[in-house]
Every structure is written in C-alpha cells, then in structure tokens.
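ARCHIVE CARD
Drawer: 12
Card no.: 0347
Subject: one protein chain, sequence and derived structure
Cross-reference: see card 0346
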Amino acid sequence: MTAVAEQWREMVTVALLGSNRREPPPPAAGLLADLAADEPRDSPSQRLLQQAAATTVLRRAGLRPAESCQPFAAPADDPRPLTPPAATRTWRQIVTDWPVLEDEWLLAVVHAGRRLAPELIGPLLTRHRTDPTRRARVSVAAGPLAAWLVEHEPRLAASGRRAPDPEAIGELPDLPTLQELAAVLQAPPQQSARVIAAGLDSGAFGVSHRAVLTNFAARVRPDALDAIAAALDRVNPSLIAIGLAFSLADLARLRRRMLDELEPG
C-alpha cells in the first residue's frame, strides 16, 4: 500500500497544479499499470482521472474491515394499523394552518386503534418536548417505537420533569367561546350552522371574534361541520368579515376530513 499512497500523493499534486502544466505520474507497476495498458487514454487529464479512479479502488480494497457492531434491538411489536398517508398529510396541514385541531387529531388516532406512521413520531416528540400531556398522547399513539427512538436519539427526550395529568390525556381541552355559541355546540347541525352564519351576516360576529369562532368550529359536534361549512359559504360576500367566513369554512372542512381519515377501520 506504500506505493499506492505515493501514487495518490503524486496525483493530488498534479490535480492542484493542473494536468496542462504537469504530466500525471506513470502508473505504478501491477494492477494500475495493467489498467493503463489495457485502456490507454489520449490526454493527460483523462489519464489522471483513470489513475485516480483505479487508485481509489485499490486504497479502499486495502482497508481492513472495522470491528462488527452489535445490531440494534428492534422495538416491541405493535399490531395496531398505521395511520394512512392521507392522515400524515393532514397533520402537516393542521400544524401549519390550524394547530387548534392537533389535540383532536392525536386522540382520533388513539380512539381509532391506530398507531402513528413512523415518519411522524420524531417530529411530534420534538414538537411536544415541553408539554407533558400532549407528549403523553404522542407516546400512546406511537406505541413502543417512541421509547425506542428516545433511547437511541436522546435529543428527542422530554424537557422538564413535570408529570402529565392522567385525566387530561384522553380528553380534549376546553376552548373558550362566546356564550351564544357555547349554547349550540351540541345542537342539531342546522341550528348551529344558522347561529354562526346569521351572526356573521348581521355583524354580531366580526373579525375581532376570530379566536372564539375558531374555537367553536374546533369543538362543535362533528356531524354539524358540513352544514356549517355550507352556511358559511353563503354568507353575504360584501361583508368585511367575508374572509373570516371563508377561513372558518376551511377549518370546518379540514376537521371533517381529518375525522373521516381516522375513522376506525
């Protein structure tokens, strides 16, 4: 290997100076010389590239294999079906556009008897490093793979030592909303749709109510979502709050799609 190392140093020098200023070194005797004789190259640059490629192969072939490593122990088996690819795409949209829906998304995964697609576990563990309750939901949805990942990637470990509230893990957190909206959260679909659409049409609800209207759409009974989206589409387009109406309709449709994708198989 000494001759090969010297050959390599010579070629590095030629490459730095340029093959137009200095000829590549003649190939060392043996395999390198045989290759050059079998496949002669016309120009110095071509001969340099040929010898560099051949020398690289010889250098690598002369390396001794490293000590064998112990293979990773696989995580415990989790027979639950994976969340579908569509749900993965929806989660990414939720955390970008409507993070108010993420708690329900995670609980829908658990209640459907599914487990998180592996590509989501790292991002979710990282996202909720400081929130013990949400992180506990992630751990339940991810199954044994979550603990396995944390063991091999300590940066995914939780930050802080606060314990999650056991009663809160399986329940959606309450979200504040207006009293008249809270009264129709569990009302028949057409009634809740009429209340929010009429409030926007009359001006009783405006842009300043965006947060509480968002909370309403995130917690209203799921079978009212289609009716609410349709009613919001019919809001007077000349209103200042028409952008808010369209935004809330988008939220209602996204939530409906989210729940449909995660229904138990």
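Annotation on reverse: The mean pLDDT is 89. The chain is about 60% helix and 0% strand.
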